[in-house]
Amino acid sequence: MAAQRIDPHTLWHPETGGAGRRVAETLRLYGPRTRAELVHLSGLSRPTVSSALADLGGADLVSEQVGAAAKPVGGRPASVVRLTRRAGIAVGVDVGRRHVRVALADLGHAVLTERQSRTDFDIDDRPREALDLGTTLVDAALHGIGATRADVVGVGLGVPAPITRDWRIGSPGMLPGWADVLPADELTARLSLPVRVDNDANLAALGEYVWGAGRGCADLVYVKLATGIGAGIVLDGRLYRGAAGTAGELGHVTLDARGPVCRCGNRGCVELSVGGRALLSHARLSHPDLTDLAGLITLAQAGDPGCRRLLADAGTQLGYALGNLVNLINPQRVLLGDELGAATDILREPLQRGLAETAFTAAAASVEVVQSALSLRAAALGGVALALGVDTVPFAAASPTL
């Protein structure tokens, strides 16, 4: 039987169906897989998967590498199938308070290029300018690899604020300049592409889960340690967002009910003792020329006693807050990321002491505290994963082959 003709330009249209679409969707969600894994994950029969792969291969939408699997099947090396760049490109955009980052990957989960730009303004007050910059970076990144917007199947956008399930800012008081902005709609209007939006810590957790220190770990917490503090939670292989979509606001867990008032309106929040603003404010009492967290970390790692003490105390307070979370969800791994993630070597021991004081012994003993593998790239790559749809499936359960 002759292979069915598949048009790559209509493969991802909602009305497109059939086994070819189903196999392609499985590869898009789970990345490169053996034929046996495709049968299992797609729910199709082996002959149907083989026929679909023939159709997709005829349109140059998949490639197969013999002997690439980590676990050969039987006595013969298994081959791995992946979507080619012809199948499309996924885009991730990370909007931070002083930066915008962009990452591009093919639908076979191979990262193609990344771009970033520091801003000379605080995006809290100028959201549309930040999204304009994101649009410029996306176009520059596409041009750099010889692609256009027509090659893009989806965009994942991360912003430093809680995002509700209907994609609105979940706490307008924390990001007042964005209160009336619908981030996904705004970026869609600029790019004329489908955009999904989520909190940046959620996306960083997703990025680490797919490409970084969370690979193969079905229960993890990613802690974003920067100007603000946030957490992305993966439970049983799925990104956990909560009923309203705003789960993970670790920075606004109360440590001291009689403490100073936080920007969120509560008192004694974690962010007031662990967040970058607070740490820099204290550090400048003895180092008035200090401009950023990287400088604070450099001083601490060089042995400056005041800066080391600031980070150690922050680690202890973070441990107290995480102890409650560890008791509730019992994660296997806690990843420390973003700017302060670079100080994991200083933070880890006091954090574990704080954990030991607040978490059950078994839960505290079973959790690993590790540094993010993707560092500042995590949220942009998580945006790629969001565009791929990885958040909709229990990714870790499928034992990646590459």
TrEMBL record:
This is Transcriptional regulator. Signal peptide: none annotated. Pfam families: ROK. It comes from Dactylosporangium siamense. PROSITE patterns: ROK. Belongs to the ROK (NagC/XylR) family.
